[in-house]
Design a protein that fits this description.
- The protein is mainly alpha-helical and 109 residues long.
- It is built from five helices and no strands.
- α2 runs antiparallel to α5.
- The longest helix is centred in the C-terminal third of the chain and has 33 residues.
- It is elongated, with a radius of gyration of 18 Å.
- The termini are far apart.
Length: 109
């Protein structure tokens, strides 16, 4: 549940906090936060899980641990990442359109 809240809530929070910045900076911050989340979800999460079960650190830190974690049923976890990426894209587009509409209302020609 915490992972879902981070993957879907943190991009929304980032867009909201950077909404007054230029569009490029808002998108860059949001994508940067999203990439850090993906790294944590894809790489750090399996390693932390293996370490919590008492597996030796040398074995838990190997790339094969991450690959084996995501093989098979890991496709569902990767689909959650895809949905989170779509949410981020839609959030940035919505924020950009909202900003353009607001500027058009403030500046009648």
């Amino acid at each position: 549940m915490t992972k879902l809240l981070l993957l879907f809530g943190l991009p929304f929070l980032t867009v909201w906090l950077t909404r007054k910045r230029p569009v490029g900076q808002m998108a860059a911050w949001t994508v940067g936060v999203q990439l850090l989340l993906y790294f944590g979800y894809i790489v750090v999460s399996p390693i932390a899980y293996h370490l919590s079960w008492g597996i030796p650190a040398a074995e838990a830190l190997s790339p094969l641990t991450v690959i084996s974690w995501w093989s098979g049923d890991g496709v569902m976890g990767l689909s959650i990442i895809a949905l989170s990426a779509l949410e981020t894209i839609f959030l940035v587009i919505f924020a950009t359109n909202h900003r353009q509409q607001r500027q058009a209302q403030d500046d009648p020609r």
